[in-house]
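Worked example 2:
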Amino acid sequence: EPLLNVKYDDRHERNVLDYWPPRKSAQDKGSPVFVWFHGGGFRQGDKQLRSGRMAVMRKAYQDAGYAVVSCNYPFLNRKEKIGYLEIVEHCARAVQFVRSKAEEWKIDPARLCCGGSSAGALISEALGYHDDYADAESSDRVARLSSRPAVVVSHWQPIGTQEFALRYMDKGEAPLFLFSDAPKSDRGHAPAEAVKIREKCKELGIPCEAISLGRNELTAVKDVQTALRRQLKFCDKHLPE
């Protein structure tokens, strides 16, 4: 059974996550873990993975032996002084918290992927390429843990790629899997944004796979199920042994 609305930090009421255990456990070490951040333009959305395509993805990861964690996070709020970088910091804390549960949840903290859709994609990329939020001098043991994923998964790459990802990317950083079937007419998720980061990965030698269902210039696959299989295969390939 999942653990729902687990508090990962006390700074905000939306600092909660759901933990879904793997459907098969690793025999000799902890299970890999897939951490998901929802979309919604940083102003709305929810972590629920019980229904629809999100549930299909969650079950596929569980069936493959992954634990799945889905996180809420604070929204943009001027009165509370929560901007884009503050949201990323809250999400970094979520990743650190997940790693702090490695023994209790029987997960391998080194084999952690971060993924998200739209705004969640930008969050995952920021975590993958921004400097680590770990504070080695902190008296808080959670804060001393790494916030960086080993693999990044991005769905529906939106505007903001430069600010959240490109400016931070460097050689040797997390491999990136991209899925977007947005047409050229989609201004919020312009396919050019996915192309930008795909080309940046190529320039830096970062492994990257970028696919669609045929509505833009990314590599086309025949259906969503094929895209999900490719995504899982990419994570399996690029997570550390």
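The helical segments are 52-63, 84-100, 102-105, 119-129, 161-166, 191-204, 224-238. The first strand starts at residue 3 and ends at 7.
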